[in-house]
Design brief:
About 15% of the residues lie in helices and about 20% in strands. By secondary structure, it is of the alpha+beta class. It has one domain: Sandwich (Jelly Rolls). The strands form three sheets. Strands 1, 2, 3, 4, 7, 10, 12 and 14 form an eight-stranded antiparallel beta sheet that branches. The chain starts with about 20 loop residues before the first helix and ends in a 6-residue tail after the last strand.
Length: about 290
């Protein structure tokens, strides 16, 4: 049995330096203007999280995951070597990398991520789950328009955010994430599919929402930069047709205090948390408490 890194709720390596005092955290704080943008638009992009050595460590571990018989493959919550619904494209999508390798474990505790997440959530940050989204060069598949929380209704209340960290430069040409500004103020929409038809979401939008949908914003990023978005913000990404990949690690988190809203397992292989009980324990660690640096 491979080592399960979910048993460790602190940094496993020296890849990230955890500040030792309040002054050390200052460089990771978002500005008031950035926080306002997030709450007005439902997303914030261009936040630097990863340095070059951290990107390379994550890329190295990621390459192992592309091999079908990689060590620890029994620990994934989900593993799709290709989740694309088109035979002509590939979308690698997997959940649970933090359990398999130390760098993917430690990225949960990246200071730039936990500080920003705490400011945007307005409290302590607890881990929900991670994801990998990788589009190979020339034939990378789409991630269809959706709201993340539509897949997360097994937890409540809605106090969730997603942090999408680029392991490559992400542009419109290779399928960067695109957002519908202000859509986090919409109600929860029905699920219309994650890796298929980019037009399917039109079926569940009213006229006002469809009009707003005509003005998406492409969150182009340099490798190491991140975009944060609210659990209700509508987003998606188009195909990668150019000669370089678009790889990303996604960390999903929620404000401490969110509870289970289901009596069955919340992630594949994870013991159930009874409905109404707080999300915590081995698989949902507390990542950051701002009170500890006051």
């Amino acid at each position: 049995m491979s080592r399960d890194w979910s048993e460790l709720h602190e940094l496993a390596t020296d890849l990230f330096a955890w500040p030792t005092d309040a002054a050390g955290w200052e460089k990771y704080r978002l500005s008031p203007e950035q926080i306002e943008t997030y709450h007005e638009q439902g997303f914030l992009h261009g936040v630097k999280i990863l340095e070059e050595n951290q990107i390379e460590a994550l890329r190295t571990e990621l390459n192992e995951f592309f091999e079908a018989d990689h060590e620890g493959n029994e620990l994934w919550y989900e593993y799709h070597s290709n989740e694309s619904t088109s035979p002509d494209t590939v979308l690698f999508h997997a959940l649970g990398a933090w359990r398999l390798r130390p760098a993917f474990h430690d990225v949960l505790w990246a200071p730039g991520f936990v500080m920003a997440a705490s400011q945007l959530l307005g409290g302590s940050v607890r881990f929900w789950h991670d994801q990998l989204f990788c589009k190979p060069a020339k034939h990378g598949g789409v991630v269809a328009w959706h709201q993340d929380y539509s897949y997360w209704t097994r937890t409540k209340p809605i106090a969730h955010l997603t942090c999408w960290m680029g392991l490559d430069d992400a542009t419109k040409e290779n399928g960067c994430v695109q957002y519908i500004p202000g859509s986090h103020k919409w109600n929860l929409l029905p699920i219309t599919g994650l890796a298929g038809n980019m037009e399917a979401i039109q079926e569940v939008l009213n006229d006002e929402q469809w009009e707003q949908f005509q003005h998406p914003v492409a969150a182009e990023l340099k490798a190491g930069e991140a975009t944060f978005h609210h659990g209700l913000t509508v987003h998606g990404s188009f195909e990668n047709r150019i000669d370089r990949p678009r790889r990303a690690v996604v960390v999903n988190a929620f404000r401490d205090g969110v509870v289970s809203d289901k009596n069955e397992e919340l992630l594949t292989g994870v013991p159930a948390i009874p409905q109404g009980e707080k999300m915590e324990g081995q698989f949902f660690p507390l990542l950051f408490d701002p009170a500890t640096i006051a």
